[in-house]
Structures are given as C-alpha cells and as structure tokens.
Amino acid sequence: MYDPLDHTSMYRKLDEDSEDSDAEGGLGNVSRVIIRPPGVSGKAKRGHLCFDAAYETGNLGRADLVGEFEYDLFLRPDTCNPRYRFWFNFTVDNVKQDQRVIFNIVNISKSKNLFRDGLTPLVKSSLRNKWVRIPRENVFYYRSAAHQGHYVLSFAFAFDKEDEIYQFALGYPYSYSKLQTYLQVLEQKYPGNFERFSLGNSIQNRRLELITIDNVKKPEKVDPKNLVRVIVIIARVHPGESPASFVVQGLIEFLAANNHPISKILRENIVFKIIPMINPDGVFLGNNRCNVVGHDLNRSWNHISPFLHPTLQATLKMLRELSTSECYQIDFVIDIHAHNSLTGAFIYGNTYDDVYRYERHLVYPRLLAAKCHDFAPENMIFNADDRKSGTARRFFCENLPDTVNSYTLNVSMSGYHIKNTKVFTQYTEDGYIRLGRNMARAFLEYYRFTNVLQIPTIKELMANRKRSKKDRNRGYRRRQDEYQPRPKTTRSSAPINYFDLGIDYYASDSSDDGSPIRYPFHSSLNRTKNLLPLQQITDQFSLMNIKNSAFNQLDFSSHKAKVQQIPVAPKAFFEEPAKPHLSIIDVNMLTRGSLQEATQKVQAIGKEIKIKSRF
C-alpha cells in the first residue's frame, strides 16, 4: 500500500544527497535549503524561499513545495529517538515583498496539545527583533485527509519586506549560549550575592552550571535544632520547554537583587542551589524532550548511568551530600517544566501516608496560588503514580529525608485565564519571569508560616512603607510668571424679594375668597415647629378686602391676629408592659411525672406579675 508520508522519514537519505550531507533528508536540520518551483533551475530568484535551521536550538528536518504558495514542513525528531517531534525553530529568507505563503507542519507527534486551545507560533524578523504571535485567525490545527488523517498545523503568513530574515518558533527560544552570557553578566553585577560553579559536564562536554545565592552566616558549632535551610531548583530537563528558563531567570534576578527587602531576608536565612539547565546538549541540538543519546532525563532518575546521564549523576551526588550533612537541611526540590496541553501555572505533588507530612506538603502550593494571578489550581495533581517513578518529583520524595518537599512546577506554553474571569491572556517573556519572582515571595511566606522566619511587627511594616524624601513625588509648583490674572467681572446688586413670613404661599388650603391663609409667626423659634394648626383669619388684609377697598384707606395699626387655642387631647393611658422573667422548670420534677403541676405553677406566677404591673 502506498504511504504518502513515506518520504517524510528523517532516517532515509535521498539519492541526490551526498554521504557527508546533513541537509534535508538526513538526520540533521536543513541548512540554507532553497526551494525552487518544479522545472526551475539555476540561480535562485526572489520568492524562492530559503529555509535554515542549522543553528543553536534550531529544528526543521525537511521542506517541500506542494503548491504555488504552500509548503509542507517536517520537524526533525530528537536525536536517537524518533518518538518526540513538537519543538520547531527555523528561519526563512530570500522572500519577495508582499509574498503570501501557507506553512503546513505535518508530523507533530502529540495530537492533543494547546494548538486546539489557541496556541499560535511566534515570529520575528532581523530588523524587528521582538517575538510576536501569529493571529489566531491565521492558524489552523486539524486532521488532514491529504496527509493520511494525521494532525496538521497550518498557518498563513505574508512577508512584508524583502531584505529581512524571518524566524518562526514554537515558543520563546532560550539557548545554552544565552544562558552563559546571562550568567557572566550576573557575576559582574552581583559579586557578593551570586556564586557560579560547574557541577560537571554533559556528554558533549558542556558545563552543568550550579548557581548558589545566599548570605547565610555558617554556624561555628553544629546545632540540630538550627540547621541551615536549603532550596534546590532544577530546570530545563526537557529542551523544548524554554519557558522554564525564563522562570528561573526571574527567580535568580529577584534573589540576587541588592536592595529588595524580601530577597535580602531570604539570602540571610536560606541557601538557594539552582541548576538552570540540566540538559545542555538537548537544548543546543534543538531536541524536544531527550538528551543527545535519546534518553528522557525526567524518566531516568531511578536508573542513572554515569555514561548516559552524567548531569543527573552530578546533581544526585550534590543532593546526597547536602542531605547527609550535619549543617544543612533540604526543604525543597522543585523541577520546573513547561506544559504543552494545559493552561496557567500549576504544581504536581506527592501523596504520603503520614498525614502531617502531607499537610505540610500542601502549604507551599496554596501560598504560591495566592501570590500568582495566573495560577490554575484545577490542574494540580497529587499522587504516587508508579509510572512516574523515574521523575524527579517521585524519586526525591522517596530517596531523600522526610523534610524534603519535592514538586514539579508547570507553566503553560500558551497562556492563562485571569482569576475569576473568562479572559485568556497569552504568556510573554515578562510573564514567565514574573512567575519566578512570585516563587521567591511564596518561599518567604512559607518560612514565616512554619515559624522559621519571624513575622515583622506592624511598626516594621509601617517603617518599610515610608519612602525617602528623594523618592517622593512632589507636586508641580508653578512659577510666579506662570500665574494668569483672574478676569474682571461686572458686579451689580442682587434683587431682593420680600415675602410675608406670616403667609404660607405653598399651602394647599386657602380662604373663602382665594387668599392664602395666615399663620402667627414667632421669630425666636423655629418656624416649622411653631406653625399652629390651620385657622382661617378674615380681616381687612385679606385678598378680597384689598381688592374691594382702596389701599390708602387700610388701617395698619389696628391689625392684630386673633388666634384661638386648640384644646390639647389628654394623654392616652398606656399600660406598662410586664417585666421579662425567666421560668425554670426542674428536670427532676418532670421525670417524676409532675409536668402538669409544674405548668400550673408557671401560669400562676405569670398572672401575679400581670396584676402587679397594672398598679
């Protein structure tokens, strides 16, 4: 039966490939491979795309032109292990302006991944050196009938400039060379807080870096009750999980900072041992999950070989020396990963028969969840799965002392849902670095919760909140020449309206002739309290009399308001309520069958109280 994917095998060389060729069709990545249309030969023209992945962390095994502007791309599997194909990182140049293409990645090994939930590839160019995600409407993940029902990742892209080199990747790349440069900068920036040491070498003789951050004063005498606490961080076991390196970078930067109060407290009390890249060969080669010999290091902790897993052996040796030391106590071993199927940040933990150890094991994940707005507690798992016995999480909890909390910290390759909302946000490099800082803050809360570090008093907290005068943002003061004179306005006397204070102009009642009713007014008291009940007063000043008589004939001196006093109703008699009382029934009487007798006594007492209350 004809297999349309037979030509995709990375282990079959084509007839036209030379023996020393490591380009398309071989075991390595494509190296400056130009794809020409059928029947075209000679010098490449603009628009004949040139693919390249022969650089650090690069991964692209083959590129085929299947249409006028459509290309099938085949990922190179991990070295010596064809099972894993997910990470990709390649460049494209020799493009034509406004050229539109469709790239189909046809041999992804894991069908259930975040491409179903909105993960999109990253792209940047040589002149625009910032990673940007391709819009979701241009990315498709589906079963392709043209590729024998395999899942295919297709994305459309338009090259807007000719003189640029475009780079595409699954996630933000973090290479071995970038780590070396970064550590050299930190050595010069924080010489007192930062110590760099080579723990060993990989199979291809790359350094296994060990970072130690602490300012702990070592005790002169060994005190079993006052041991130095140690936290061990491991990252980049799987080369394709580059977000783990950014998380470690955020943690290192936070702990090494000189002026931050949290990092200062942690350095003075805790020793941090950080291995930022435990699989440097796999990272350099652009593998997805394995080292150079095709072994998954996160399944090899329970059967370490000095030849196949030298980095694991060096790490385990360091941990055993710390665990057997009389001065140190390991509290945490955290293995940082990136997840390609779930969103957010979450932790995998263990289960224990000892209830107290299990409760202590749950403390740090809860504290980290409170610190991180991107934490996804619904994805957390705590188990003792025998199939994961070769992982760092399961191996260290069984082979190190009971004081060790061993976790796997996962962060999504895609993004996270903001807490209590349905808003989905894609991770950036800063987002991963922020997670590393939050890890350090959660460590401080953990040691305060377990009474290893003292909780600061309110005065100390208020003192830390005070800012120095130099840091205060003073308001802008305008100079004298900036003041503008106030414009002059015309002033005139306001009209005064005279009202008869003895007349209620807003009353609904009126006299027989339509004039408002007058009320006696006392200026010494509040008017609203001294308006007596309505009483109609008919005199010469009523509206009808004023209309019928001449105004100059009115006698103002004889006007006196006569008010009849309304009799006040006698105060109603209210009976004083009975005083509350508490009736206690003897339980012994009830048990002897005297319930009716006890009830009659209570009723009699109530009647006596009512009679007395009347008098």
UniProtKB/TrEMBL annotation:
A single Gene Ontology molecular function, please?
Answer: zinc ion binding
Q: What is this protein called?
A: CSON001915 protein
Which species is this record about? Culicoides sonorensis (Biting midge)
Gene3D superfamilies assigned to the protein according to its UniProt record, in alphabetical order: 2.60.40.3120, Zn peptidases (3.40.630.10)
Entry's family note: Belongs to the peptidase M14 family.
Task: Output the Pfam families linked to this UniProt entry.
Answer: Pepdidase_M14_N (PF18027), Peptidase_M14 (PF00246)
* Cofactor(s) in the UniProt record: Zn(2+)
Question: What PROSITE patterns does the database record attribute to this sequence?
Answer: PEPTIDASE_M14
Note down the stretches annotated as region Disordered. 464-494
Q: Where is the composition biased (Basic residues)?
A: 464-477
**GO BP:** proteolysis
- Top-down, what is the taxonomic lineage of the species of origin? Eukaryota, Metazoa, Ecdysozoa, Arthropoda, Hexapoda
Which residues does the UniProt record annotate as the domain Peptidase M14? 172-447
Top-level division of the source organism's lineage: Eukaryota
